[in-house]
Amino acid sequence: MVHKADLSIAGVNYGLSSQHVIDFDGLAASYEPFRGIPSVWPEALDLAIRVEVGSAPERGSLSVLFDAGGAWVMLGDRDGYQITLNARALPGDALWTAQAVRDVSRATVFCSGQMVRKTAHGIAIANPVAYPLDQILLMHLLARHEGALVHAAGASIGGRALIFPGKSGAGKSTLAGLLAGRPGLELLSDDRIAVRTVDGTFAAYGTPWPGDQGAALNEKATLCGICFLRHADADRIEPLTPSQALERLLPVTSVPWYDREAMSGVLSFCDALLAQIPAYDLHFKPGARVAELVEELIE
What we know:
Blueprint: E1 3-9, E2 12-18, E3 21-23, E4 45-53, E5 63-67, E6 72-77, E7 80-85, E8 96-101, E9 106-111, E10 116-119, E11 122-126, H1 133-143, E12 147-157, E13 160-165, H2 172-179, E14 185-189, E15 192-198, E16 201-205, E17 220-231, E18 236-240, H3 242-249, H4 260-276, E19 279-284, H5 288-298
Parallel strand pairs: 2-4, 3-11, 4-9, 13-17, 17-19
Antiparallel strand pairs: 1-2, 5-6, 6-7, 7-8, 8-9, 10-11, 12-13, 12-14, 12-15, 15-16, 16-17, 18-19
Helix pairs in contact: 1-4, 3-4
């Protein structure tokens, strides 16, 4: 019997299948809106993921592409990628190893015994498609399909959205807290936003990776502006040129610099994005006035 489960993030359908039950109980609550129902948006992409128990087969000569301090490591060759969580554990003790084809349309995740529990109906595997694996796969998939993942908050009114990129401490969660509860306004996320090209326009998507405010909405809205956050003593908005905006956007965009093909896709996407979508510096101090400015800019 094949067991199936689904996640949908930014219109990317993670279709999981396994001979064993896939246990979602350990997922953070922020994943709940993203579970169970595949996206039917026209721009939807499918990522088929097989989940198995055991060690990953050898893939020959793989080169190290990225090492996240030993927490996870990505290897690669011309055929695809291999990502290992808890990579510096003793041999055989890594939590899981994922192998994905080059275009990131298919992947297999090999789970260690640490992720398996026995039930009355057999064994169940803790879902491995959560942070960081889901985010790594999304970054690479969007790079090949005119999209990118941005360290940003996002808010929408009536199907139109602004995103607010910034590094940690820039004020994303603070601004999200000021916007929360405003009539007619929806918070897509307060920490990670996916942006994609859709029929010649750009759309912003909520993700299940929130910040302090916990905003994680499985919705999209047409992107109408990008506001880079700046702490200030007074609220004001300053327009930016595309080149100025690019300097601010790249440090807060997930760019796989270690992969020439994927990197080129993200950089081309950012150029196209800033050629069409206006960008601003949003200088703000906490208070109701900045929320009003945001609403005015969206509307």
